[in-house]
Amino acid sequence: MKNGRRRGRTGTGAGRGDGSRIAILQTARELFARRGFRGTSLASIADAVELSQPGVLHHFPSKTELLLAVLRQRDTEDGRLASSLRTREGIDLIRALGGLVAHNQASPEIVRFFTVLTSEALADDHPAHDYFVDRYRQIRARIERNLRRGQESGEVRCDADLEAIAPIVVAVMDGLQLQWLLDRDVDVLRSYDVFARMLIQYLEQGSAAEL
Amino acid sequence: MKNGRRRGRTGTGAGRGDGSRIAILQTARELFARRGFRGTSLASIADAVELSQPGVLHHFPSKTELLLAVLRQRDTEDGRLASSLRTREGIDLIRALGGLVAHNQASPEIVRFFTVLTSEALADDHPAHDYFVDRYRQIRARIERNLRRGQESGEVRCDADLEAIAPIVVAVMDGLQLQWLLDRDVDVLRSYDVFARMLIQYLEQGSAAEL
DNA sequence: GTCTATATGAGGATAGAC
DNA sequence: GTCTATCCTCATATAGAC
């Protein structure tokens, strides 16, 4: 008794149509978040969406393509979120990222998805390797750019090393969330707030705004 | 032609004795660092040390036990390093951790080992899950404790929230190293130095030492 | 669109010879 | 201490029926 599924349909081929595709994408994201890409079998995804394993591969030509589809989907969904950050410049960006951290507290699965997959994708033959290299470059570049606008407006001290600061901001968010995923007692929001205070104070020193 | 090994020995059972055990531990650490625990096969380890796969299992009863042995070994080796940090208190600890970051730049494999395995071990059924939960608790506790000594000596402002700061310090180190592993252009040392300046300035504000 | 059946291969672990 | 041979399970992917 290996195949423990019990679909009500009689195999006429009616199916769920597009609904299956959507269900597969969501379930794949959840399971990839738990066990990584390599650690997740197509069969486990199939079970969760109540399809056979080849049923899953009907919608995506391969497991790798499924992962890439999940990443593309998240990109479009995150597009809205990212664009709401686009206009936040200088000190305001640091506070806005606190809002993102707060928002993430409600979505441990998404946080875990990116945490687990980023580490797995350190291997340069991982299907998502290039994706994550690019992702981090873009995030750092955006933070640096928006902080620089604050510098140009005189809000941020002109001698702040923004190229060094952008990776720090990313590191704090990632690193705190990693600790939180491992141990929910870690208070990400409290720590981020202390960091933000520290950073803002540093950025404002000697700025035109301070005078 | 599947088994691509060509040992010179004739199978008399002489072997390398203890040398094999050592070689297995080191190779396992390297491969776990690259592909994680789940992503590494015993066969790949066996190939690298020029043993058969059952030959590897002669030294460790299972793959899980091999991982735990690797972790135990790192703990004893890191013991020396950790004890050199034990006496660094207050502001001095923040600078000493910069030395650790610098030291890590020469050992990407070790950094990657911990990065990859920590994320993989987020799964609560992972063989190293408890190990990493404990590890992070201990690291945070030690940082908090050593900063508190600086507080007691008056070097660090007394209203600093050390329970919030300890996770930040860990996050910055982990997060910067993750970005560096993904993209060697990231300048971990430069970013850590900026962070350290920022944090030290924050900690010194309103301290007795400042007066 | 979904299934069953199957090809093909990899992985962990064990038995038993030398 | 190490090997060969083997077992069993699991995984991805494909072929072809309905």
Quaternary state of this entry equals homodimer
The total beta strand count of chain A reads 0
Number of helices of chain A: 9
Q: What is the C-alpha radius of gyration of chain A, as a whole number of Å?
A: 21 Å
CATH class of the largest domain in chain A: Mainly Alpha
Can you walk through the features of this model?
The structure is a homodimer of 211-residue chains. Chain A is mostly helical. Chain A has two domains: 3-64, Orthogonal Bundle (Arc Repressor Mutant, subunit A), CATH 1.10.10.60; 84-203, Tetracycline Repressor, domain 2. Helix content of chain A is 69%, strand content 0%. Chain A has helices at 18-35, 42-49, 53-59, 63-86, 91-104, 108-120, 129-152, 162-182, 188-204. In chain A, helix 1 packs across helix 4. The radius of gyration of chain A is 21 Å and the shape is elongated. Chain A starts with 17 loop residues before the first helix and ends in a 7-residue tail after the last helix. The relative contact order of chain A is 0.10. Chains A and B meet through helix 6, helix 7, helix 8 and helix 9 of A and helix 6, helix 7, helix 8 and helix 9 of B. Chain A binds a DNA duplex (18 and 18 nucleotides) through helix 3.
